[in-house]
């Protein structure tokens, strides 16, 4: 399973805006996009996800769906991203196709250890700093938190930093041992930053994170 180093988490003030931003991200060279829609019906999410799948397929960009693993299977997305309050990754794995990836959110060392034991394909660790994208934020980790967790974790599972990350943070974040980053706001404000993020991450096809489970 190859996990791109840069994830764009979709943003927009309407489902249509999410789709427009996904198209812009694809045009700018995004390799993986997470469709993250909140507070709308599952029927509407299925419709938007289907359209997002068409857009990303055209650009050969990978698409993962936030929360809704059954929708991810229905539209044959590349995977699903599960929050801490969503379904257990082990249960989702039983439903999804074997080739679909599962990522999940963590805030603590214990969260990470639990997710490693459930064999997720990547762990989204954050928030790096305060962000307007989510309410009721857990503990802000910062560079110190990332370093402390990764020093203790000892895993080959890719760790993706998330939460208010900008291009100026990338070098220091990678130095902690984090594998890649997920970005929403900074990219939505300037899609040209995708190229700069890629350069900073050295996220060419040959430099993607390669993750294999220990058999």
How helical, in percent, are the residues?
25-40%
In round numbers, the mean pLDDT is 93
Number of helices: 9
Oligomer description:
single chain
Q: Find the CATH topology.
A: TIM Barrel
**Gap from first CA to last CA:** 14 Å
User: What would you report as the Rg, rounded to the nearest angstrom?
Assistant: 16 Å
Large-scale geometry: globular
- Largest sheet: spatial strand order: 2-3-4-5-6-7-8-9
Notable characteristics:
TIM Barrel, single chain, eight-stranded parallel beta barrel, two-stranded antiparallel ribbon, alpha/beta, 215 residues
Summary, kept brief:
With 215 residues, the protein is an alpha/beta fold. 39% of the residues lie in helices and 18% in strands.
Would you give an account of this structure?
The chain is of the alpha/beta class and 215 residues long. The longest helix is centred in the N-terminal third of the chain and has 17 residues, at 42-58. It has a single domain (2-203), classed as TIM Barrel (Alpha-Beta Barrel). Mean pLDDT is 93; it is low at 203-208. Helices cover 39% and strands 18% of the residues. The chain has an 8-stranded parallel β-barrel with strand order 2-3-4-5-6-7-8-9, surrounded by 5 helices.
């Amino acid at each position: 399973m190859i996990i791109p180093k840069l994830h764009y988490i979709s943003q927009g003030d309407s489902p249509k805006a999410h789709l427009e931003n996904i198209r812009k991200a694809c045009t700018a060279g995004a390799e993986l996009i997470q469709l993250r829609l909140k507070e709308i019906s599952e029927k509407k999410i299925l419709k938007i996800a289907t359209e997002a799948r068409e857009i990303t397929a055209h650009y050969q960009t990978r698409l993962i769906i936030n929360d809704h693993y059954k929708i991810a299977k229905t539209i044959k997305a590349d995977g699903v991203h599960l929050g801490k309050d969503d379904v257990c990754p082990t249960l989702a794995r039983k439903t999804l196709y074997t080739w679909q990836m599962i990522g999940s959110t963590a805030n603590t060392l214990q969260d990470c250890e639990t997710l490693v034991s459930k064999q997720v394909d990547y762990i989204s660790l954050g928030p790096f700093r305060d962000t307007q994208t989510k309410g009721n934020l857990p503990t802000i980790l910062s560079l110190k938190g990332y370093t402390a967790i990764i020093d203790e974790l000892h895993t080959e599972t890719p760790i993706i930093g998330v939460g208010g990350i900008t291009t100026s943070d990338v070098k220091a974040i990678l130095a902690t041992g984090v594998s890649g980053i997920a970005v929403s706001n900074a990219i939505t404000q300037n899609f040209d930053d995708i190229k700069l993020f890629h350069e900073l991450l050295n996220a060419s096809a040959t430099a993607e994170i390669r993750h294999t489970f220990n058999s």
